[in-house]
Amino acid sequence: MKKPLLIVLIALLFTNIVTAQISRPLASSNKAKPKASCGKVYIGFGTGINYSSGLMGLNVDVPVTGSFSLGTGVGISSWGYKLYGEARYYFSPCNRGWALGTGLTLNTGLSSFQSELPTTYGTDLVTLELHKKLNAFLCGYRFWDMGKRGHRFHLQLGYSLPLSNDDYTILSGHTLDSDGVAIMDILSPGGLIFGMGFSFAIGK
Length: 204
What we know:
The protein has 204 residues and is α+β, with helices and mostly antiparallel strands.
C-alpha cells in the first residue's frame, strides 16, 4: 500500500513542478495575467479511487473564508450511493493552490449484490448484502484555475479509514476462500484515495 501511495504522491508533485515551470515565463511577461475571480460557491463533479463522492459524483464546496471551506456531495460507487461532508483548509487565497481536507463518507450499501467470487467449492455466483460503511478520511489537494471566471480543476490524494469492520453478509450460503475475502476487501470502501474533479464558480 505504501508503494502506490508514494508513486501517486511523486506524480502529484511532478505535475505541480511542471505547471510552475510553464507559468513562470508568463508571469515575467510585461502583460499582467488577469486574476481569476473568487466564487461564492463551487459546483462540480469528480471521479477516482475511493473519491469522496464515488466513481462519479456531484460536489458542492462553499467558501467560508478565502482559506477555509465546507463541502458535501453525492454519487454512485461500487458499494451503493456515496455521500460525504468535508472541511477544507487552503494554503493560498481565494480557495486555490494546495489544500488539506478531512471529513466523513457514507456508502449506503446494497441489499442484494451478485458477483462471481472464489469460494471453498470453486468460483461461483455469490449473493451478498453489502452493509452501510462509514469512513473517515484525510487528504491533500492541488487546485488550478481554469479560465478567467474562477472555475477550478483539482487532484486529490489521501487515505480513507473504515470506522467499522462489518462489511457484508453472504446470502447464498457460500463460504469465501482467502482469494474471495481479498477481493471483497478491495471492493469495500477504504484505503488509498486518488481522484480528480472540476468545479464551476458560481457568484462573485
